[in-house]
Description:
- The protein is an alpha+beta fold.
- It has one domain (about 35-160): Double Stranded RNA Binding Domain (2-Layer Sandwich), CATH 3.30.160.
- The chain is about 25% helix and about 35% strand.
- The protein contains four helices and ten strands.
- The chain has helices spanning about 110-125, 130, 140-145, 150-160; strands at about 1-5, 10-15, 20-25, 30-35, 50, 55-60, 60-70, 75-85, 85-95, 100-105.
- The strands form two sheets. It has an eight-stranded antiparallel sheet with strand order 1-2-3-4-7-8-9-10.
- A hairpin with a 6-residue loop joins strand 2 (about 10-15) and strand 3 (about 20-25).
- The radius of gyration is 17 Å and the shape is globular.
- The relative contact order is 0.17.
Amino acid sequence: MAQVNQNIYKYETNTYPQNPIIIYKSPCQTLRYKIISEGKYPPESKLLYTKKPKAYKIPNKYIVQTSYGKEKNQKMVTCLISYYGGKAKFRVVYSDKSADYVESKESPSAAANLYQKIIEQKIKKNLNKENQKKTSATKWNGVLLFGLQLQQIKDIREIKQVNR
């Protein structure tokens, strides 16, 4: 099934929940998500949202593996969201060792950008001083890294919420 947003040419292909893999394509990149746990939305009084203008709902107990990059240099991270004390905690695990992670209680983008800093540090270690100056200060969109924009997952969470 493909869902198309005519305004900005972004779409996702999936057969979720039969297959946990969702491919999300935009003009600039392709992201591959493997849904480990779709999570659920807390009651409306406790539900948190990302920042406006999109204001995506933030699920609790959500786990997704996100792959990005060209085939030869593809990277994979595991993103987790959990609620604690009325706030959301966003974690990005960036290696096979679950101890290698960054975390933010601010936003998915804050966690994504902490992850980006780790990547840039690793790149700089492997470059000579001249090339270190050329490394970019790329900013990640946390909504994309965490897959919060995925319509099929949002729809399933909302159906399950109504059926509770």
